[in-house]
Amino acid sequence: MRVNRSAYYDWHSKPVEVITAERLHLYRRAKTLFKDSRESLGSRELSKKLREEGFVIGRYATRTIMRKLKLKVTRRVVYKITTKRKHSDDVADNLLNQNFNPVAVNEVWAGDITYLHTNEGWMYLAIVMDLFSRRIVGWHMDKRMTSSLISKALMKAVNLRQPKPGLVFHSDRGSQYTGKLYQKLLATFAIRPSMGDVGACWDNAVVERFFGSLKHDWILKIAQPTRDHMKQDVADYIRYYNNDRLHSTNSDMSPVKYELSQLIVSGKG
Question: What values do phi and psi take at 93, rounded to 5?
């Protein structure tokens, strides 16, 4: 077998690791969950997902398993802001003041726009997030960054959630959000606008974190040959994000599960 004598005896004297069926199941689930996240789950998040499935495991044991199975997370990079305000437009007051934790659904929504590159050119994504659960309740993509882009995202959210009058919608001061067309649409549904301060990205930090996860945990890890491919990939991530991705602010539950748990607690589920 073309193996020298010393190498053979080193192999022969090395104890063979016996893996139980339970351990093998743990390894398989860890690899599957890591793959489903598009290789973005760190040891903290992966251990939470494993515990959710009934495994008794901590972060450090998970870290050891990740090293053993060669499950390595790709680090994120920074990205730039896309929208700028047109100074002739009106600016709403900041009603949030970085309070990103409303006490019920459909009290505060937040939105923003980001850009995504494909081999066919740029695509722009507008989202609407319910800050109570961090759930994406509306989104739309287009080749152009216009008021129509954010209007369609808002309409999808309104049709899905049917919010009562008085809901707050928070955004930056980009021209799409300060423009008369969008402000009129908000007024039509009795939605109160709120806008962050100039250059203060932390005023919409929750949405910014979502975009960071979308890009660097998902989109940038595979080729994006066409706009249609990108749109489907974004849809896949939003489905994963809403239904499977755990959030510490949601008591380590996904947005959908957290909303359902609160319905049960309130007696409405």
Answer: -70, 155
pLDDT in tens, 180-207: 999 999 999 999 999 987 555 556 889 9
Pairing of strands 192-195, 168-171: parallel
Contacts 24+ apart (CB under 8 A), 138-143: 139/234, 139/238, 141/116, 141/230, 141/231, 141/234, 143/227
CA distance 255 to 244: 8
Q: Give the up-direction half-sphere exposure of residue 261: CA atoms within 13 A in the CB hemisphere.
A: 11
pTM exceeds 0.70: yes
For residue 73, give the amino acid letter: V
In angstroms, the CA 145 to CA 125 distance is: 8
Burial of 144 by CB count in 10 Å (0-12 exposed, 13-18 middle, 19+ buried)? Answer: exposed
Q: Which of 86, 85, 74 has the alpha carbon at shortest distance from 216?
A: 74
Buried b (16+ CB within 10 A) or exposed e, 246-257: bbeebebbbbbb
| Spatial contact of 85 and 91, defined as CB atoms under 8 Å apart | yes
